[in-house]
Amino acid sequence: MSALLDVSGLRVALGRGRGRTEILHGVDLTVAPGEIVGLIGETGSGKTTLARAVLGLVPPSAGTVAVGGREVGGLRGAAQRAFRRGGAVQYVFQDPLRSLDPDRTVFDTLVEGLAVRGRSRAELREAAEDAARLVSLPADLLPRHPGELSGGQRQRVAIGRAIAVGPRLLICDEPVSALDASTRITILELLLRLRETRDLGVLLITHDLGSLGGVADRVVVLYHGRVVETGTTEEIFLAPRHPYTRLLVTSVPSIRDEQPPDPAARRALREQVRALASADLS
Ligand SMILES: Nc1ncnc2c1ncn2[C@@H]1O[C@H](COP(=O)(O)OP(=O)(O)OP(=O)(O)O)[C@@H](O)[C@H]1O
């Protein structure tokens, strides 16, 4: 299957003048249609920078970003705006309360990306109802405002808004970390359903490996701006190769409890990861 998202040798530097630092040091990553890829890494590893590069918000200093076979990393000006308006890639933020306009009803939010395309009110109502159905939001919530919804309902609105414009790739940045455990499961199930019904590719960004189990087909491990390991979720969970990945795996309670790690082995792993981190900083 050809890649929907193909990131190759991506380097991104941020900051100005002497403060300019390379954040991504040659990242390779693919997402196929209908595939959920987990992107995991600790805070500051460059996950959001990678997402921003895919959205065309930060330019690569080297490497390529292709969506549906089309190079989008180097787009500028009108071509870049047209790519963003086209809606092929949509972004869902961690905190829906901050990403949703508090003064906008659920209805208006769901059709936000469509309204500018000059549709009739009847078409918009149909689109809003379709989007609400897709993300299992009851129609009686359409006139409400974000402040009147639960955290899970807000995240459904944010996902519904993204889906309404018909994206091929959804980038979800920590979509469940602000939610309680049972709501997390329903949102992750929603992503699973959407990838099946819509053949949607999903890049699921998280620092919590546990939330990827049962959802991601593959996992990409980012460490200090480099991909240190890629594998199927099963490979990553059962046979992690890189010390950082092994540390992540032993930190997931459900895995840890099945195979209690030897405390000495765990300490040794921490030491290895610490040594790697200081090597990177020097
Ligand atoms: N505009 C900027 N200028 C300079 N450095 C930046 C800028 N934005 C981010 N950085 C740095 O880039 C690095 C990666 O940040 P990024 O937000 O991509 O990490 P992350 O993995 O998404 O972290 P988190 O999980 O905390 O969101 C960090 O060290 C950050 O301080």
UniProtKB/TrEMBL annotation:
What sections of the sequence does the record tag as coiled-coil?
none
Keyword Nucleotide-binding on entry? yes
Domain ABC transporter per the UniProt entry, residue ranges = 5-249
- Top-rank taxon of the source lineage equals Bacteria
- Pfam families named among the record's database cross-references: ABC_tran (PF00005), oligo_HPY (PF08352)
UniProt keywords (A-Z) are: ATP-binding, Nucleotide-binding, Transport
Q: Name one GO molecular function term.
A: ATP binding
- Whether Transmembrane counts among this entry's keywords is no
Similarity remark: Belongs to the ABC transporter superfamily.
From the Swiss-Prot or TrEMBL record, give the protein name: ABC transporter ATP-binding protein
